[in-house]
Design a protein that fits this description.
- The structure is a homodimer of 188-residue chains.
- With 188 residues, chain A is α+β, with helices and mostly antiparallel strands.
- The first copy, chain A, folds into 2 domains: 5-47, no CATH class; 52-186, Nucleoside Triphosphate Pyrophosphohydrolase (Alpha-Beta Complex).
- Chain A is 19% helix and 42% strand.
- Chain A has 3 helices and 11 strands, in the order βββββββαββββαα.
- In chain A, strands 4, 7, 8, 9 and 10 form a 5-stranded mixed sheet that branches.
- In chain A, β5 (64-71) and β6 (76-80) form a beta hairpin.
- In chain A, α2 crosses α3 (173-186).
- The radius of gyration of chain A is 19 Å and the shape is globular.
- Chains A and B meet through β2, β3, β5, β6 and β9 of A and β2, β3, β5, β6 and β9 of B.
Chain lengths: 188, 188
């Protein structure tokens, strides 16, 4: 720890907490909080989500399995890692990642390890996103998509992946961070 | 473009759009949409935000200026880049970044360039976050914090920054991605 205890920021005290929305895709909490300096905020909103996960899946010949998908927030189709949510009872986060890779791309098998843990927004949401690195994956089945999913599959070389990052074609920060870490590890 | 036009995912058509919340810190839109396969979703929520920004500020002796701040979403104090929002009329995104660095840390001057552009969540929110790389910064004033801000300032060496990333002490993906890109650039 580098932090100097004299000036370490304090935690907030929750005075009151209620849910504005509680739907499968939208759970929003409203907290009234007291700051260390005594000031209060009546309406601080927090989005509650289950853990999220994504996968850097590397094929036996060194290609990384990307997908393309329309994202309505920014209104664009872009390159992403296969990804999903850990919301099935009895399933581990690793199993959820393996299931999502299989469903979205048809790739599976290989050797898996945890690669990174990040937050999309530590101020406003409560969950962590876990990235797994799976090496030696291969095509084991067809895609199994939900009726709301339209996903194309694109295995790319590390050089192409590096170009996509440099050109801003992988906008999702939760994907860009572990990918840059992976590309950097290949140079060492 | 690697994408195969035959299977390029299509955009969604917006059938109806309304605002559930429109407050300074919470603008939430509810869209009814039609997918390319004809299926409809009645309630897809999008959070609208102004552009966000953050800064990798490197001092004349090569230290990177980090801050520590309590983040209520995850309920923890963690290391971050100085960061903020582009919401002042007449101010460019670069000027907003320079202002935020000065207010949060007291550091300024130096040579600035855009370093990365990312999205915290392309599915659910509409804004982009811009990272600037500022080199040769120095302490030019005291911090100027809002009454709701409690921020401590921590210039760290590249080696220490690398350790913080490896130990998961910089959780915010919008900060981790440009930091890893910066650390990787130092190795080349």
């Amino acid at each position: 720890m580098i932090s100097n205890n004299r000036n370490e920021p304090g935690h907030w005290e929750v005075l009151e907490s209620s849910y504005l929305h509680k739907e499968p895709w939208l759970t929003m909490r409203k907290d009234a909080v007291r700051l260390p300096n005594g000031r209060t905020i009546d309406n601080f909103y927090v989005w509650e989500y289950p853990p999220w996960l994504n996968v850097i899946a590397v094929t036996e010949n060194g290609e990384i399995v990307l997908i393309r998908q329309y994202r309505h927030g920014i209104g664009k189709v872009s390159y992403e890692l296969p990804a999903g949510v850990h919301d099935k009872p009895g399933e581990s986060i690793l199993e959820a990642a393996q299931r999502e890779l299989l469903e979205e791309t048809g790739y599976g098998a290989g050797t898996w390890k945890q690669w990174m843990a990040l937050s999309a927004n530590p101020a406003l949401q409560n969950n962590i996103t876990y990235t797994f690195l799976a090496t030696g994956v291969c095509k084991v089945s067809q895609q199994q998509l939900d009726t709301t999913e339209e996903i194309s599959v694109h295995p790319v070389s590390p050089e192409k992946l590096s170009e996509l990052i440099d050109n801003g074609e992988i906008l999702q920060a939760l994907h860009a961070a572990p990918i840059i870490k992976y590309l950097c590890s290949l140079q060492q």
